[in-house]
Amino acid sequence: EWARLESVTTYIQRGKSPKYSTVEKYPVIAQKCNQWSGFSVEKARFIDPATVSKYADERILKDGDLLWNSTGLGTLGRMAVYDSAKNRYGWAVADSHVTVIRTREDWLDHRFAFAYFAGPSVQPEIEDQASGSTKQKELAQETVRNYLIPVPPLAEQRRIVYEVDWLFKILV
Question: Nearest 5 degrees, angle CA 64-CA 30-CA 104?
Fold first, then answer.
């Protein structure tokens, strides 16, 4: 079946514009932290510790969150999967140029969703669906919510992820 992304997720939200600090305690995940090679906290900036309480619990990143770059030429559409094991700070939020997608794991395996969105059928469409001027294209939250995604049975999603992972190991 095909479904609108919002119907198989529990959370779709752009990050917030933070008040930055030189205190390296609470990282903000920006577009530069999301590379096709994976998620990295090394390029993150940090939130002012006095503003941490202004972030609702749902904004704190969780393992398996899809981090979709939502702004700018050349970075729009790039996606990574949040992995707390790669974040030595134990806490992170996204900035306003990254859309966080949290799947309903009983319907949509985040690894399958990542493989689909990173694939050749989606990426060329992303810039076409973005709005704004050429250099400041934006992927609107409504576009993300309404994006159609295939939703095979969970066992089939996991089989596909296994095959994709196996193929990438052969290629590398």
Answer: 25
Question: pLDDT tens-digit profile of 159-171?
Answer: 999 999 999 889 8
60 vs 140: which has the higher pLDDT: 60
Distance, in Å, from the CA atom of 111 to the CA atom of 43, rounded to the nearest integer, reads 23
This prediction has a pTM of 0.92
β-strands 93-94, 27-29: how paired? parallel
How big is the chain, counted in residues? 172
CA 162 vs. chain centroid, Å, equals 20
pLDDT for 134 equals 59
- In the three-class reduction of DSSP (H, G, I as helix; E, B as strand; rest coil), residue 41 is classed as coil
Tell me the CA distances in angstroms from 93 to 29, 77, 138, one per residue in order.
6, 19, 20
Q: To which residue do tokens 């770059």 refer? A: 69
Give all domains of the chain, ordered by start, each with its CATH number: 2-171 (3.90.220.20)
